[in-house]
Amino acid sequence: MAMIVVGRSAGVSDTGRKRRQNEDAYVCEPPLFAIADGMGGAQAGEVASGLAAAAFEEGAAAIHGEDGVATLVRAANARIFERAVHDPTVAGMGTTATVAVVDESAGTVTLAHVGDSRAYRYRGRALEQLTTDHSLVGELVRSGRLTEDEAAVHPHRSVITRALGTDADVEVDTLTVEVVPGDLVLLCSDGLSAMVRDEEIARVLEATGAAPREAGEALIAAANAAGGEDNVTVVLFELLSEALPEPESTEVLDAASQAEPDDVTVEDVRKHGAGKGSRWPALLLLLVILAVAAFVLWWSLVR
Ligand code: MN
Q: Fewest Cβ atoms nearer than 10 Å: which of 99, 142, 199, 303?
């Protein structure tokens, strides 16, 4: 019997206000959730994060424990590195990766991560960062040579010290945390965490009742209001008690296939594999309407 179940979940991604392309990618396929923040010239960052997301989606079914998640992340690394070695147009590309897998029967979330995309647990009104940034400023803060405030404005704050795809092998950090009904887990790219402080993230979560989609859209808006200097991506999922009623199925579908916020381009939506469910029926309906209109016109002419 499951101790907890995944309730509503949502992934939201936005290009931000300064970048021309969105090189972030995400996976929101319960029980697996992931964020990848790509880097590299031209389209390379987008290729790297897209390869990582695809690898996570494909491997999601057979994941068990920290070793399983770490193996999945290393497999994604190998796939990106292989591509970078053989394709000069994407040489040197890389991506962060933060993966969360829920074990409902154990009541735990297992995390694996590389780079500075974060995972947080929101419980009560407290927001706790679960991951440690593999970034230059992150290491300087941990060694006491930089304060959090100095790190927030450091010119090299976006330099990461580990990435997927840049080497044949990669060191993956893993951890497993307990979750209880009512918890919310937030994964985000640095486009959120570099623009919006933890206290403000917690305030937004509280103001939106920690409803995954509403909170996700509000967090994107907060990052853009703060300058939107980078692509910003969030994935949120709530944990419920099995005794509680199941979330409405529309909400769950919503999270998986929901259209992105208005200012997200169609390209972003396609990249993230969202919107498939809502776009095609509308197109089909349009074709049917056009066919009926053509028939009526033809009928009125031949009579
Ligand atoms: Mn970023």
A: 303
Q: Measure the CA dihedral 118/121/127/128, to 10°.
A: -70
CATH number for the segment(s) 2-243: 3.60.40.10
User: Ligand 1 centroid vs 26 CA: distance in angstroms?
Assistant: 13
Asked if residue 31 lies in contact with residue 104, where contact means CB atoms within 8 angstroms, the answer is: yes
CA distance 82 to 92: 11
Report CA(259)–ligand 1 centroid distance (Å).
Answer: 22
Percent of the chain with pLDDT over 90: 73
Amino acid at 25: A
Specify the amino acid at residue 210.
Answer: A
**Distance, CA 229 to ligand 1 centroid (Å)?**
9
> Can you tell me whether residue 185 is helix, strand or coil?
strand
Q: Cα of 277 to ligand 1 centre, how many Å?
A: 28
pTM: 0.80
* Distance from the alpha carbon of residue 284 to the mean position of ligand 1, in angstroms: 37
pLDDT at 61 over 60: yes
Phi, psi of 243 (to 5 degrees): -70, -25
Cβ atoms within 10 Å of 124's Cβ, excluding its own: 9
Element (H or E) spanning 199, and its range?
helix 198-207
| Å from CA of 158 to ligand 1 middle | 7
The structure tokens 């936005």 sit at: 14
CB 107 within 8 A of CB 6: no
pLDDT in tens, 178-220: 999 999 999 999 999 999 999 999 999 999 999 999 999 999 9
